[in-house]
User: Fold these one by one.
Assistant:
Number 1:
Amino acid sequence: MLSMACKDAIRAMIYIVKKKSDDFISINEIAKELDLSFYFLSKILQKLVKQGLLESYRGPKGGVRLAKKPKDIKLLDIIEAIDGNAFFTECVLGFKECSDSEPCAIHSKWAKEREKIHKLFANTTLQKIEKELENKLNIKL
Amino acid sequence: MLSMACKDAIRAMIYIVKKKSDDFISINEIAKELDLSFYFLSKILQKLVKQGLLESYRGPKGGVRLAKKPKDIKLLDIIEAIDGNAFFTECVLGFKECSDSEPCAIHSKWAKEREKIHKLFANTTLQKIEKELENKLNIKL
DNA sequence: ATTATTTAAGACTTGAAAGTCTTAAATATA
DNA sequence: TATATTTAAGACTTTCAAGTCTTAAATAAT
């Protein structure tokens, strides 16, 4: 469902928010902590910079940091920045024309569940995730 | 979410059940009617034969037909035959260890919605789809 | 100024899914 | 029996995401 790049992007964003740092965080640090390829993660985070979710700074003490408040960054923003919105708009059976008026055989039921997932991602901000991480132990990053 | 192969498999199965034929239906016919590649569809349906969802017969008047009653074939059977069950078992963020006891940051919410989709696919049999197709116009195949 | 450190950009390689083709095996029919 | 028709199996090619690497640009610290 989510691409590898998207999963990595979400994990990186959670790592960043969890640090609660006003300084820039180097991509190298994030890659090491999350056991990701520095090269691959760099490319992914560049997209988040371009989408305005992160801001970056070059040179020593450079890195990335959130461009907005954690309460204003939704999981959905990250997903759409990396994977686009195909999952939330395209027919589950792949019909170009599938819609409420011209549905495929499972359109209505699928659209209903898909909308719940859309809301889940739209309602889950980095702030909420951060809060959960504070309250619970045993949470994987 | 579903692979191309899986989407094609579902469409083909719906086409077959809709025909209500005791005879074998040639893959060539299905491919033409659904505007799919004969080669690609052949490979996909071979998997469904191996999984026991279809039975096939070679030679003139050969083809494929359902190996079970429409009420005993679930959408989930088709999906698992082609794509496996990764979507329903793997962590949305890609953690190997993610589980109820060792959750990732969004495990519980995701697992809840995912289970609904699992049930949707498990409850939707070819018979139910066939019934809907009879009742409604404008249903895309 | 020079050097080290960091992201930016884009070229390049790899791997897996998608898609095509060829040959073999089964079988109905003439 | 010979032929045409159909699926089976697997080799082959294409496409695109995943992943790697190199060079450039920015900037802090010495």
Number 2:
Amino acid sequence: MAVAPGPRPEAETPRLDPGRRLTRQRRLVWQTIQEIGPHCTAEQVTASVKQANPRVARSTVYRILADLCSAGDVVVARLDAGGLRYELAAAEHPHAVCQVCGKVIHVGDELLETFEEHLAATVGFRTVRIDLTVNGVCRDCAAPGRRATRRQRHDHI
Amino acid sequence: MAVAPGPRPEAETPRLDPGRRLTRQRRLVWQTIQEIGPHCTAEQVTASVKQANPRVARSTVYRILADLCSAGDVVVARLDAGGLRYELAAAEHPHAVCQVCGKVIHVGDELLETFEEHLAATVGFRTVRIDLTVNGVCRDCAAPGRRATRRQRHDHI
DNA sequence: TTAGCTGCAAAAGGTTTGCAAATTA
DNA sequence: TAATTTGCAAACCTTTTGCAGCTAA
């Protein structure tokens, strides 16, 4: 398995693995991910792409997302039990997910480097990417008098 | 949504939410999770349970796992694109997943508290549980001359 | 006795795949 | 032109649900 190179700044066109072609659909998916922003689902991407061109198939979007990931331009996160979340590798960051309303908050990643160093030193593990999700309750939902507005499918987490 | 109480040391029988019954199946699933050890899939649990009693249904195992989670005895992790992983809350810890061979390594959680404090102070987020997965390459697979032996379904992660 | 649990079978939801036709380099 | 990509539809896999019969308290 090829371990993808590190993130790079946002670009006009996606990076391509050798022999790969830059098609209309690929360009469209790439733009869409930049527009929607971080932690979007495949479903969201597909919907936006179909607005621009209804003939693009869902499976095509999935295939392109997989390619973008393997090229290292996009990364996947598993925030909740719904679909996988995609984001530009350049925009990657830890997430905090509210268990009550489902809101996703971005959090800093200052502490992660320490973790990597620790792992390399103790078990010789080479870190490629750290996936950190904080589950809890956001300020709004913790406020007195507030009620839940959305429950997640796997609310037993 | 009920936010479950914190973990407790390994016990003979699972904790039950009020009004819940301790059935043969529940006891069996509970024992099985302790035997298999951390980050087991629902499928693994079901297979082991069926060895002891082939009549136990898959759906029953899922329902019991959900109950154990809601009681706070078991927690879920999303390590890879296969099924969810379950483990005793008492055994919870961050994971490092090797992208080449799929092996899971346990890592310490010394750094996580700092993260919680930071989040509470900056955005008022109350942390219930931190889900930390490190993706990378383990010492064995990084060794020169080694080849991949297993690819994950979503190997583009 | 009776609310809660189980087994079965079928549905749901997200993702992947096979294949012929279209398209890019 | 030749190899890659696409669109479509169907398959897949994990998890959930409906319901009638069973069972722990």
Number 3:
Amino acid sequence: MTEDVKPVNFIRQIIDEDLSSGKHTEIVTRFPPEPNGYLHIGHAKSIWLNFGIKDDYQGKCTLRFDDTNPVREDAEFVTAIEEDVRWLGYKWTAIAHASDYFEQFHDYAVELIRKGLAYVDSLGADEIRNLRGTLSEPGADSPYRNRSIEENLALFSKMRAGEFANGEHVLRAKIDMSSPNINLRDPILYRIRHHPHQRTGDKWCIYPMYDFAHGQGDAIEGVTHSLCTLEFEDHRALYEWFIENLSVPSKPRQIEFSRLNLNYTVMSKRMLTQLVEQGYVHGWDDPRMPTISGLRRRGYTPASIRNFIASVGITKKSNIIEMGVLENCIREDLDPVAPRAMAVLRPLKVVIENYPEGESEILDVPNHPANPDMGTRKITLSREIYIDRDDYMDEPPKKFFRLGPGREVRLRYGFIVKCTDVIRDVTGQAIELRVQFDPETRGGNQPVGRKIKGIIHWVSANHCANAEIRLYDRLFSQANPLADKTKEFTDSINPESLEVLENCKVEMSLSTSSSDTRYQFERTGYFYPDKESSAGKLIFNRIVTLRDTWAKLAG
RNA sequence: UGGGGUGUAGCCAAGUGGCCUAAGGCACCAGGUUUUGAUCCUGGCAUCCGGAGGUUCGAAUCCUCCCACCCCAGCCA
């Protein structure tokens, strides 16, 4: 699963065959997002596939914006998409836009009209739909289907000139209204949209449909393998029909693969947009979102995402991948390189009664348990410390190796302490622990016969920094938020997907840390400074927890 | 019930007629190491490949029929 293993999948097999048969000598792919939203991890699959092929076969890959529908698209999204692709670690051979080819597409449309293969239809949207037939019944010809070539040419020209209102006419291919494939029932090629385009401005008022733009765009760019998702399988016949009937410069081949789905989240751009616009999350880059920008802000690395895609593979089978696979990838990426630190999320004060008041000691501790090259850092230990509330229980169950009344535990890198007293508030809740330390056990020294299994993290009360820590959990409480068709997917949003802890205590070294370091807070998880974090106010996002056998045992 | 697809373990996924009494990863279970209940290490985890027939000396891989699931009736992509 490392990145130096070349991926094997059915698409690469096809490419290998095309190369060995001499059908192609250079491989050209493209990644074609529509700039109407942010990229999500499902797009990362397509990016990994297309750019990965380009890299491994020394081919070409264009980042091409599929901007054929000006009413939904926005320049804000194109900038964000470029940034996301770059961040994932890929370089495009060229950047292009379907709109770059509008003039050429228009000429192709005229070519079709001249060949008697396209006509201007003056039916309304409802009428067109009614004549299209159904899944099991054939459609019927439009009364305008047999207009003369001259009339079609004249009408289409007027459409372009802006002489008609939206919806008044449309250009259609003349194929077969009784085809069992609905895409072949005289599909619409051009529609009138009096709407400025984010790139071409007011130049056009007719815009090509996806089907009329995509394949021809591929052909113009010399794309050899046009990789798209399963829902376009039915469109392939139309894709090929255009390629066969138009004087395009090359003949690309469309190959479909299945989209990526993850459980406990949604992957449709429409739904992600809804989450953002209706305020269920705090923007496209909310760390709970499966967007590239959300994962980035959360602390995921580009390599972890690439490895994740590589590990799930490319097939034609519909799938829902378990979130645990993604989590495993980021842990795997971070464990060998993340510096360790101690951070107390829910502080509980502990006074070491036999530790001299006003004194302290400096401990030189390793930044990584298995990699001495990562060096050491100094932390201070003194009479008053904080430990995590989770590491103390009034009535510990068996197998709980941490603190409880009368119990012993080791302070990480420090000595063994024994809980001798518990101070409580009026409700009876423990608010402070009194402990005694054993000087014999300093520095990891374990006297014979003393077997202390529990080790807990801590920070010195007078030698720590305050921090806000944001704990993220799955966005939905249902594995498949779309399974129950009687409910809105937003009904299964996890109300505890974000927990903000404002009063965390972290070791001093974190207050001067780089904003681009991902840490492992020992025993709790991997954390990454949020973009809102500053020296005056530390904020960390939890990327993922550590594997937690105890949590599993405790239920 | 038209057309297009897919079915190998809880989730992914190799496998392209004999070396398959079916790789690998995640998850899970059992041990070991460990100053993170982390990491790491060891072992376990499909007599079976959606089902039923058939072809063959031999099938997850070929044929037939059946079943299940996904996609398609936007002037969206």
Number 4:
Amino acid sequence: MAIATKPASGFRDFLPEDMRRRDYVFGIVEKVFKKYGFDKIDTPSVERLSTLLGKYGDEGDQLLFRILNRGDKLSKALDNEPGEGNLSETGLRYDLTVPLARVFAKYRSDLPPIFKRYQIAPVWRADRPQRGRYREFYQCDVDIVGSDSRLVEVEVVSALTEILNTLKFENFRVHVNHRELLKVMIESAGISSAQESTTLVALDKLDKIGIDGVKKELINRGLNDQQIDKLIGLSENLPDDNREKVNTLIERTSNIDRSKTVGEELLLILDLAENTVAGETLFFDPFLARGLSYYTGAIFEIRSDDFPGSLGGGGRYDELIGMFMKESVPACGFSLGLERIILLLEERGADFGEDAGPDVLVSVFSDELAGESLKVATEIRELGLKVDVYPGSGKFKKQFKYANTRKIKKVVVLAPDEVENGTISIKDMATTDQVTFSRAAYLDELKKLLA
RNA sequence: GUGGCUGUAGUUCAGUUGGUUAGAAUACUGGCUUGUGAUGCCGGGGGUCGCGGGUUCGAGUCCCGUCAGCCACCCCA
């Protein structure tokens, strides 16, 4: 048997048709990010493990692709006691936010005091592949570093809403919540901080498994009935309107001091968002939790009924950059799951713009006439058209077939007859019509393709 | 990491209660057509039926193991 040609599990090849769609989508993303005043950066795919570890929570650490040491370092490790600590020092980046934090900490003096950046690049996770879940996938990240204003949250959500609107991606919401509000709710229900994270995980599933499912889960996780009833009680019979919902929760958790200030932060975000496209898409979801441990304030997640997971997520992470420098710097950002959005757009039969293949194929009758074909191709290229010269020579049958597979609309025919008479024939692949022009006039005919 | 389903030409799939040399469509390729594709007709190459073991006179088919893929969970984009 030959060597396996499938890419490694969770990795993908992108053929020309795939790339066309991806370029179309990435192009829109980039245009909108620029429109919102973000600058582009790039960072290495490989980071030190010391940079990566401890930022994403235990689950995240498990999913890091680590790079095995080589040479002496590896032999020494194997000779002594091989373990997590000495077998690997670097790994593939898990997201684009932690590298940004590192970069900002290192180059702060070279960067504007408030740094707005975007980055579109692949990240890697050693996850089990599934529909819309890959081990290598692109993230489109926007972040604003150095500002503590709620305006930042709104700008970021507004940018990604505009991207999805431009892509005509429908049927989505941006769920919003606040890490502190979750803590307030848990405290208010008399649940200890030790049980906080496990409680959050259960709560996050509310829309999937329902209230009864969450209750069961919480019992399994060791909460008592009183705590559960209080916690569930907070969420029952909430009004539909975002603001009223926040206000109701502030009232219900009034036994905790911070309740009001946290709630007001959410209200401010909702109010500011009304001045942007984000106003239409924000949906306050008091049970949105998000696993990444670096979030400290508002958190966001794009959801759609057509996909079980998240289509993008983000939030405020005011302490992350401080892990790379002495001072803490506030920051907030969002990562768009373009892979999943492309997947859904494909499933919905979306339009990805025009096919951008060559406009013209110049056929090659024989090796003797190859030079003549190249000369003609050069002339046509000077018009600004995309021109393919048949890579070889021989049967026209083959060459026309080739034009079809490449979806080329016009074929320039240049055989001994044409050369002798000083003419050029142009065949239209759709209508099968073939018309002969003088060498002076054929370019005018092809110019029509430019329009 | 846990559970379920599925593995047959490059691709999509047939293949009967286990029975001779494993089929179709499509793609590729040659001819009908030595200057013309997509439609037609005739031909050609391409498979150790995922891999290993077992049951049997006989296994693509049944059993066990293993690997891979898909789906669900966990988590996430």
